[in-house]
């Protein structure tokens, strides 16, 4: 009996390992020989990238390596996906030049790995570094080290590498232009331009200058064949797709060249709050009137005036009792001085009752910090801190409004917001330049007629009991459900930079365009078909695959009604 005893457990152990497809045991045929993924990959990049040949291990990090966990975790922003249960990539690759990005792409293809690009790791569903499948047959190509920003103030352009943060871009643009130029993009300084511009990028200057992606004039992309292409080389189809079609689908952006925009020496801003202590009475009536008036005007204000609204729950301790009340905040950015802004507000939205003491003047760079929430005149260098945004647990959903929410809907919002102390809602007005760009001008389709976007957040700190996750998720999904009657329909629109896997996802190994239309047309409306056709041309084998990558649509010339002599 004795000698045969270990056999069964050993067999079970082996079975167990192969079912989990442990990356450490990953084996395949490489040039006739069977080798370890890491060693074979090292040889491949050394061959492909002479500059790396001396020390390829600087570029390649496998699960057994000491460098792997810290590199993988470095920019995981949503701690929900930092858990040990999250399926990990087979390799983390850390190129520092465009040539190394090319080598990574070619070697991933040669080793049967799909590729997920990562710049800043802010993807709300973590798709730049995690898979929902069981088998880690993908590599993360992390371009965080490619982060140079060069400003040519005379020509009014900047070149920013994918791993540059918005904070670094804003700071360098302001410094390089003596404060004359700015760039319209999002408010979170740690978001990287690699993902952000790939998905659009909205922020407090969008009413004047559109999305970040609307201001891209050139780019360098490594395609699925490992070629480095600029705008002329990639052609207008691919160049259209990368400006809002979402990251991670058609190539790895190495750098963007963007048009900078003029900003005045003085801009101004206010932040004012309305706390609703008693429901059902006069205070609520007057708040509802203000919310209704704001919805009527905020999308139609002069382009240089952006007034956003947010809601959250405020806990008030009242003796032994602590109760939550709706807190509504209005926050502005005006590209001009306080006296001009107050004149505009008094004209369009007098119900807000803005006083000169509510208004603050500052330069544009400071206003980017202010919009993010650093409202006390902190030094602009804060924008250079790549870890400024605290890592948290969160879930986000987003809707668009094509007509104002009527009073009953507003009352439902005020009721719902106090149900979760970690929940909040941001409503950003569009209009202005956002509605003048044609729907098919870029992949971002929510243009004319889309008045506002509503962002439903629930975010809880690492110190809080993680088992509350289910409650938070059901609150934010319930809120989204509650708003159904009031928001855009057919399709119920969504925004790819606010990725939401509740909308649907690709099936690994059987990704279908028809199935993907369910979520794809929510993000892109009719532009989804064109994106899928570009994907079909540039990456039909889906080297760049994720749960929400664009599926390839290869239309035969006969079906498309086109004449081709090939
Ligand atoms: C705190 C916070 C605040 C935010 N605020 C705003 C805001 O104000 N406005 C707004 O519009 N959005 C905002 N976002 C959303 C943000 O714009 C997107 O999540 C964006 O895609 C993040 O880019 P990243 O490079 O940091 O993230 P990543 O997770 O690295 O990438 C996001 C997606 O792009 C792909 N990708 C990354 N790098 C590249 C590349 N070089 N080439 C091709 N594809 C790439 C990834 O594979 C992934 O699919 C915010 C997000 C967070 C977490
Ligand atoms: C504000 O700016 C306007 C120009 O738009 C200027 O005419 C006015 O004098 C400025 N007011 C103050 C108080 O600086
Ligand atoms: C976390 O919360 C759950 C209830 O939601 C509770 O059962 C559990 O004991 C809590 N755990 C800790 C460590 O507080
Ligand atoms: C793949 O997807 C298509 C369309 O959804 C479906 O008809 C087909 O049965 C699927 N094939 C497999 C092998 O699952």
UniProtKB/TrEMBL annotation:
- Domain (FAD-binding PCMH-type): residue spans on this chain: 85-263
Extract the PROSITE patterns matched here.
FAD_PCMH (PS51387), OX2_COVAL_FAD (PS00862)
Q: Does the keyword Transport apply?
A: no
**Localization:** Secreted, Extracellular space
Q: Which Gene Ontology cellular component annotation is one that this UniProt entry carries?
A: extracellular region
Q: What is its main location?
A: secreted
Leader peptide range in chain numbering? 1-26
| Swiss-Prot/TrEMBL cofactor(s) | FAD
Q: Which domain of life is it from?
A: Eukaryota
Going by the UniProt record, its keywords in alphabetical order are:
FAD, Flavoprotein, Glycoprotein, Oxidoreductase, Signal
**Classification via SUPFAM superfamilies:** FAD-binding/transporter-associated domain-like
Per its record, what are the GO molecular function terms?
FAD binding; oxidoreductase activity
Pfam families in the cross-refs: BBE, FAD_binding_4
- Which family does the record claim for this protein? Belongs to the oxygen-dependent FAD-linked oxidoreductase family.
Name of the molecule in the record = FAD-binding PCMH-type domain-containing protein
Organism per entry: Oryza glaberrima (African rice)
């Amino acid at each position: 009996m004795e000698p045969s005893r270990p056999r069964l457990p050993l067999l079970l152990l082996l079975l167990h390992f192969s079912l989990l497809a442990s990356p450490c045991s990953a084996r395949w045929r490489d040039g006739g020989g069977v080798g370890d993924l890491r060693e074979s990959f090292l040889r491949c990049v050394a061959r492909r990238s002479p500059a790396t040949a001396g020390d390829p291990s600087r570029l390649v990090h496998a699960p057994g390596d000491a460098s792997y966990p810290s590199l993988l975790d470095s920019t995981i922003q949503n701690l929900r996906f930092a858990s040990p249960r999250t399926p990990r990539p087979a390799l983390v690759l850390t190129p520092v030049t465009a040539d190394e990005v090319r080598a990574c792409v070619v070697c991933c293809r040669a080793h049967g790995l799909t590729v997920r690009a990562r710049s800043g790791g802010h993807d709300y569903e973590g798709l730049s570094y995690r898979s929902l499948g069981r088998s880690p047959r993908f590599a993360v190509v992390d371009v965080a080290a490619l982060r140079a920003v060069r400003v040519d103030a005379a020509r009014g352009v900047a070149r920013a590498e994918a791993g540059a943060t918005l904070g670094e871009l804003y700071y360098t643009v302001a410094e390089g232009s003596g404060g004359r130029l700015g760039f319209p993009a999002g408010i979170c300084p740690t978001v990287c331009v690699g993902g952000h511009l790939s998905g659009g990028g909205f922020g407090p200057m969008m009413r004047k200058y559109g999305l970040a992606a609307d201001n891209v004039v050139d780019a360098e992309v490594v395609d699925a064949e490992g070629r480095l292409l600029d705008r002329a080389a990639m052609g207008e189809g691919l160049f259209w797709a990368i400006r809002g079609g979402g990251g991670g689908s058609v190539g790895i952006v190495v750098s963007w060249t963007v048009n900078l925009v003029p900003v005045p020496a003085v801009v101004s801003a206010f932040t004012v709050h309305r706390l609703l202590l008693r429901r059902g009475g006069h205070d609520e009536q007057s708040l509802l009137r203000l919310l209704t008036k704001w919805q009527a005007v905020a999308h139609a204000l002069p382009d240089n005036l952006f007034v956003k609204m947010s809601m959250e729950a405020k806990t008030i301790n009242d003796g032994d009792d602590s109760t939550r009340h709706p807190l509504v905040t209005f926050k502005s950015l005006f590209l001009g001085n306080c006296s001009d802004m107050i004149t505009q507000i008094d004209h369009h939205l007098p119900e807000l009752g803005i006083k000169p003491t509510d208004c603050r003047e500052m330069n544009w760079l400071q206003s980017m910090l202010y919009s993010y929430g650093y409202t006390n005149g902190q030094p602009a260098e804060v924008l250079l801190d790549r870890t400024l945004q605290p890592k948290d647990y969160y879930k986000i959903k987003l809707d668009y409004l094509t007509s104002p929410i009527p009073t009953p809907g507003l009352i439902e919002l005020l009721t719902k917001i106090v149900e979760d102390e970690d929940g909040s809602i941001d409503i950003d007005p569009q209009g202005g330049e956002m509605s003048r760009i044609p729907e098919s001008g870029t992949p971002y389709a929510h243009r004319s007629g889309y008045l506002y976007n509503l962002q439903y957040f629930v975010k809880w700190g690492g110190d809080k009991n993680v088992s509350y996750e289910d409650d938070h998720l059901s609150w934010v999904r319930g809120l989204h459900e509650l708003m159904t009657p009031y928001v855009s329909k057919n399709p119920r629109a969504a925004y790819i930079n606010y990725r939401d896997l509740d909308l649907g996802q690709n099936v690994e190994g059987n990704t279908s365009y028809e199935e993907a239309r369910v979520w794809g047309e929510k993000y892109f409306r009719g532009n989804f078909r064109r994106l899928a056709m570009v994907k079909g041309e540039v990456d039909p084998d889906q080297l760049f695959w994720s749960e929400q990558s664009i599926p390839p649509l290869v239309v035969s010339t006969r079906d498309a009604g086109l004449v081709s002599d090939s």
